[in-house]
Structure formats: C-alpha cells, structure tokens
Design a protein that fits this description.
By secondary structure, the chain is α+β, with helices and mostly antiparallel strands. Helices cover 63% and strands 8% of the residues. The protein folds into 4 domains: 1-43 and 177-346, Multidrug efflux transporter AcrB transmembrane domain (Multidrug efflux transporter AcrB transmembrane fold); 66-163, Alpha-Beta Plaits (2-Layer Sandwich); 360-391 and 517-693, Multidrug efflux transporter AcrB transmembrane domain (Multidrug efflux transporter AcrB transmembrane fold, Up-down Bundle), CATH 1.20.1640; 420-500, Alpha-Beta Plaits, CATH 3.30.70. The protein has 23 helices and 11 strands. The strands form 3 sheets. Strands 6, 7, 8, 9 and 10 form a 5-stranded antiparallel sheet that branches. Helix 13 packs antiparallel against helix 21 and helix 19 (585-613) runs parallel beside helix 21.
C-alpha cells in the first residue's frame, strides 16, 4: 500500500493542474446534482418493528390517520386577573381561529371553546391546527400565516406561543463553528510558522466537507435522513480533514528538510504519513458504518453519511494535498528559513515530546495513577446517566416551543405534553367492550390524570384511548406507566392492546438504542483489538490501547451528565436547558471516539515500535517515538477540540451535546491517555509489550502502516544511484 501511495503522491504533485481540475469538476458535478435531487430532512425518530411503530401503522390502516400529517398547537395565555373566557379575550381567540382556518395547507382547527381545551383556571387554552401535508412539506408561507393569525390575539393583550414542528421559528446560526476553524488556523500557524502551510489543511478540509455535504443533500432525495446528519458530517469532516492534512504536510516538510526535491518529498510523505492516514480513516469509517448493525435505520443512515464524509477527507488528503503542495512550492516553509537551507528551527534544546516522555518515564507509576484518578473523577457522574430523546422541554428557554411547552404543563399538568395513545384491536363488535375494560384497568394505575372514553373506527374492530400521565414525558414515572399498561395487555380477553404516541415512540427508541449499545461496543472493541494487533504485532499493546479508549469514553459520558443533565457549567457554556442525555449520544460517542483514539495511538506508538524493532531499548524507543510524534499529535488534538467545541453553541441539542462530548473525550484521550498513560505503561511492560506468539505473527498480514518497507526500497535505490555515480566518477 505504501508504494502505491508513494506513486499517487508523486503523480498528484507532478500533474497538479490535472488533479486540481478533477477535484473542481467533481465539486461542480456534486453541486449540480444536489440542486436537482435534494429533498427534505426529518427530525422524527422511529424504529420499525417496535410496538409503538406497529400501533401507528394500525392507526393509519384502521382510522386513516398516522403520524405523517403536520400539526401545531397555538397556546393562548392571559395574565393578571383576566380570564380567557372574558368577552374581549374570547373574541380575540375566535378571530385568530377563523384566520387559522383560512391559512394555506390547513385541514382543520380545533376551537378551544368547542374542544374544551381550556385550563381549569381559564388562563391557558390551545387550538390544535392540523395540516393536509407532512411537516417537511409545510411551506414558509403557511408557517408565516400561522404566526400572523396568532398575532391578531397578541394585539388584544393575549400571550401567544406555538408548539410543534410547524410552529418553530427558524433561527439564524450563530456561526460558532467558524470559531473552531479560527482556533484551528491559529494552532496550525503556530505549528508550521507559515500562512500557506497553515491554510493548506483548512482549504483541503473544506473541499472534503463541501463534497460530503453535497453528497448528503443528494442522498436526501432518495433516503429519509435526520436533520442532524449534515451537522454531524461537517463536524467530523472538518476535524479529520484538517488533522490528516496536518500529518502529511508535517511529513512533507521533514522530507524537504532532508534535502529532497518537492516531488520526491510529496511521494514519501503520502507513502508514509499517508499510509497512517488510510489506517486511521479506515478505523473511523468502519466504526461509523458499523452503526448499521444496530438495526436502527436513522442511526445507520447518519453513520454511513458521516463515514462517507470521512472517506472523502482521506481521498482529499492523499490526492489533493500533494497537488496543492506543488502549487505552494517553497512557501510551505516558514519565510525565515526559505533561503537558508533550514526548514525548521535549529534545536537549542530537546524537543517538547522528548522532554515530556523522559519526565513521564522518570515518574511512570505516578504517570499512570494520577491520570487514572482524574479520569475516574470525570467519569463518576456517568453513574447517574439518564437517556431520552429530545422534545420541546429541552429547547432553548426563550424559544416559542419551549414557552408553549411550559405554559401547557402549567395549565394542564406535566403529562399533558406527552399523551399516550392506547390502541385496542378485537373482532368486529367487541372492540368497544374490550376498550372500556382497558379504560377501567388503566384508570386504576398510578400516575394517571385522565383516560378518555374509547373512540371506535367505522368497522368497529379497533378503538383508541388517550391517556394523560401525571408526569413529564421524559420522566421515569411515565416510562414505568407505559410498561405497566403493556403488562396489563394480557388481562384483555380476545383483544390486543398496544401503546403508541410520540412519548411511547421515544421510549421505545431509547430502549432500543440502549440495548444496541452493548453489542456495538463489543464490535468496536473487538475491531480495535484486531486492527491494533495488525499494526503493532503485539498482544498487550492493543489491550492497553483498547482499555485507554474505554477510559476516554467513560470520561466523556461523565462530562455530558455533569453539564447537560446535572446543569453544572451550563450557563458558562450557553446551555439554556438541561435534562436527560439524548439517547443516540452514547452509541455515537463510542463509535467516533474509537476512531479518533486509534488515530493518536497509531501516530504515537508506531514510531516507538519501529525504534524497538531496530534495536532500541524499550524506554529509548518510547522517548524517540514521543519526540517525533508528540508535537503533531498535540496540534491535531487541539484542532479537533477546537472544531468540536465550536458546535457546543449550536441550536440542535444532539449537536451541542456531541460537540461537548467529543471535545472533552479528545482532550482526555490525547493528553491523559495517549501522551501520559501510554508511554508510562509501555515503560512498565518493557520488552513484553511487543510480544506476539510466533504462530500468530506468521498468520497476521503485515500492513506496514509506517511505510517501513517503502523506506527500505527507496534507501536501496538511493544507495544504488550513489554507487553508480561513484563508479562513473572513478572511471
């Protein structure tokens, strides 16, 4: 592989105009295709095959309804001594309802006074607006008409807020992602001392992300993708795109410093550092694509989309980066060294990595125990981890959907925002009796506010009940209520019972995600062990690396619970609402952190193994490996942390929490695990760290991640050329 990449690097450098033109053409083709084929995204979470999903299908079949039609609640409130039943207030609400009925794409509007949707204190009421199309098909004109109708009541002194996806007001992005890119640029500038060298990884990363985003837009025309898919792919694409280019550019500058010309330096950089990039990218891609084995369609789609973006980042690094290096010429070198023959600062003292490694090895027991203590403290809050899917209760406190949620909870009870729909199926003519029996049974359960009388379909073989819990939708009490209702399904004679509705669907999805985490973790950990055994030809090093990865994941979970669930530092980080962690977060963190942790492991430890194989003592090998890799890995970690941290201030709850979890996880993994615990453990293990049974050594293929075989081949070619020149000179 290294030889093939060496040739690719030389070709891209030599034929840089052609290479650049090919990438520009690819961007243009993707852009045209995205403009023609893109479709809407969805914020809904569902898993086919769960009880709640099957019950929704029954509703669609038996009642001609389902969860496709968009709806919104317009919530009216009044302050002071006034009541909504007052003449002026009632007239204002009725005027708003009339205007809502005339709005485009509206199928029906439930008047609060006719539907009896007024709170007991007569200070809160709501009108339910049902649309003729799905939420993704509601036009901007229809959304504006919804708010315009509500404004008629506002002008009369009433408070008006909107619940539901249709009522959400699109907010302008804060541009906080750009902050991460600015910090990354600063880190690159400090690392390379050249604007061109600092700008190159940013440019190529943006190209890769652009292609990934356009590809996702194209995919939305054929598949149902979550609205968070693009943000996830952008986050990962930027982070790995910058880091991978950083590794290649750094190696290219080293090759120039050794006196090689640009084309040869590009070939060697792609053949060596590029080989590590391929392996590192492959681990991320496999970890994300492995989300497909969970059996959760929306999760698999997000994972595959992000994996494709990472794969594009790898291809850009291997092909476009050497081409841009060709255009940059000697500007890739710091200006003060371009005409001096020096490409790096003269070493006046040992490199940071060497000094750090020697300090760790001097206090190797403490270098293991102290970081482990810190990580344990970071991970401790994870024992209180609670999972749920986001709803309006987790929206920003000043958003209209959050205000509507709080007002409805205050006026009608906490459980009003999460009604349960109970579907009873029986033979024609017996469904009503079975449903009434179910109503009586459910009414006697704990945490119940109201169970409505059964509503029958025309065939008389299906009935539905609406259950209003006493507790909030994401509470444990509501989850227990759903389980209690399902357990009592067996008490019905000759009928079946199922619980559905948004709250039940979210509970089922969360349970499915939790159940999938264990098998997925086994797959990822097993994959980590096999891949690292291939790279390092060792048993103990992969075990150490895998345990380190699990430590990073635990610390990341703890940070999420500490901030997003318990609310610590929430104000400082701009987090306006706290609650259970989004259910998809643990499985995403496991997959993504696995790939990133393996990146650092490869770039730091491969050089250590190479030195040991060439005869260095275990401690000397560690020092040499750290001295060569620590600076680049530190820069890479700071860049990733900056990019991920920029997403903490995004509007989307999933992206906010993923940004924090990844930023913190990368910090722990890079600085506490890979740069402190790893060298200390390698020193403690000594020569046994690199032990591998002979039969297994013969069985495993040699992947040569560092391009050692390529280096030997090129050295042999150089020696042969030198010998020929010497012979010619003597002749």
């Amino acid at each position: 592989m290294a030889t093939l990449l060496y040739r690719l690097g030389r070709f891209s450098f030599r034929r840089r105009q052609l290479t650049l033109a090919a990438w520009v053409l690819l961007l243009a083709v993707f852009g045209l295709a995205a403009a023609q084929l893109s479709g809407p995204t969805s914020s809904a979470f569902s898993i086919p095959g769960t009880e709640s999903s099957r019950a929704m299908d029954v509703l669609a079949e038996k009642f001609g309804t389902g969860d496709d039609a968009a709806s919104a609640k317009v919530v009216f409130t009044v302050s002071g001594d006034a009541k909504l039943t007052g003449a002026a207030q009632k007239a204002a609400i009725e005027a708003a309802v009339q205007q809502l009925e005339a709005a485009p794409q509206v199928a029906s509007v439930a008047d609060p006074f006719e539907a009896k949707t007024i709170s007991q204190d007569q200070k809160t009421a709501y009108a339910t607006v049902t649309y003729t199309v799905a939420a993704t098909d509601v036009t901007d004109t229809s959304r504006e008409a919804l708010h315009t109708a509500g404004d008629t009541a506002t002008s009369a002194g009433l408070g008006v807020e909107y619940s539901g996806e249709v009522g959400q007001i699109a907010e302008e992005g804060g541009g906080t992602e750009a902050l991460g890119i600015v910090i990354a640029a600063f880190v690159l500038l400090i690392t390379f001392g050249s604007l061109v060298a600092a700008g190159l990884p940013l440019l190529t990363a943006l190209v890769g992300v652009g292609l990934g985003m356009l590809g996702i837009q194209i995919a939305t025309g054929f598949f149902d993708l979550s609205g968070s898919t693009s943000a996830l792919a952008t986050m990962l694409g930027l982070a790995v795109g910058i880091d991978y280019a950083l590794f290649v550019v750094s190696r290219y500058r080293q090759e120039l410093a050794d006196g090689r010309d640009g084309e040869e330096a590009a070939g060697r950089a792609v053949g060596t550092a590029g080989s590590a990039v391929v392996f590192a990218g492959l681990t991320v891609v496999i970890a994300l694509a492995a989300l497909s084995v969970t059996g959760i369609p929306f999760l698999a789609a997000m994972g595959i989309a992000a994996a494709c973006t990472v794969a594009i980042a790898v291809l850009v690094t291997l092909s476009l980066v050497p081409a841009i290096l060709g255009f940059a010429g000697r500007k890739i070198i710091a200006k003060r060294h371009r005409n001096t023959g020096q490409h790096e600062k003269p070493a006046v003292k040992a490199p940071f990595g060497e000094r750090w490694a020697r300090g760790v090895l001097r206090h190797r027991v403490a270098a293991v125990l102290l970081p482990l203590g810190l990580i344990a403290a970071f991970a401790l809050p994870a024992l209180d981890l609670r999972l749920a899917l986001p709803d309006d209760s987790t929206a920003a406190v000043d958003s209209t959907q959050r205000k509507a949620y709080d007002q409805l909870a205050a006026g009608f009870g906490a459980g009003f925002n999460g009604p349960l729909i109970v579907v009873v199926e029986a033979t024609a003519g017996t469904a009503k009796t079975a449903a009434e029996q179910a109503q009586k049974t459910i009414t006697g359960l704990d945490d119940i506010v109201l169970v409505t009388p059964p509503t029958l379909n025309q065939a008389g073989d299906t009935a539905l009940l609406t259950v209003i819990p006493a507790s909030a939708p994401t509470s444990e009490a509501t989850k227990n209520l759903v389980l209690d209702i399902r357990e009592h399904a067996s008490t019905l004679t000759g009928a079946t019972l199922a619980v559905t509705g948004t709250t039940a669907i979210n509970i089922d999805v969360s349970d499915k995600l939790t159940d999938a985490l264990g098998p997925y973790l086994v797959i990822v950990v097993g994959l980590a062990f096999i891949l690292l055994m291939l790279v390092f030809r060792s048993i103990l090093v992969p075990i150490k690396a895998t345990v380190g990865f699990l430590l990073s994941v635990a610390a990341s979970f703890g940070a999420l619970v500490f901030v997003f669930q318990q609310g610590h530092l929430a104000d400082a980080l701009g987090i306006e609402s706290t609650g259970p962690i989004v259910s998809i977060m643990p499985i995403f963190l496991v997959g993504i952190l696995f790939g990133l942790a393996m990146d650092y492991e490869v770039f730091l430890v491969t050089r250590t193994r190479e030195e040991f194989v060439h005869g260095a003592s275990p401690d000397d090998a560690v020092v040499t490996g750290m001295s060569h890799g620590a600076r680049v890995v530190t820069a890479a970690a700071l860049i990733m942390m900056s990019v991920f941290a920029g997403f903490i201030f995004a509007d989307d709850t999933i992206i906010k929490s993923l940004g924090l979890g990844l930023a913190f996880g990368v910090a722990v993994d890079a600085f506490l695990v890979r740069m402190t615990i790893v060298p200390a453990v390698l020193s403690l293990l000594g020569r046994s760290a690199w032990w591998l049974p002979g039969w297994l050594d013969k069985l495993l293929p040699n992947v040569d991640v560092e391009g050692e075989q390529l280096t030997k081949q090129l050295a042999a070619v150089e020696q042969e050329s030198t010998d020929q020149e010497f012979a010619t000179t003597r002749a």
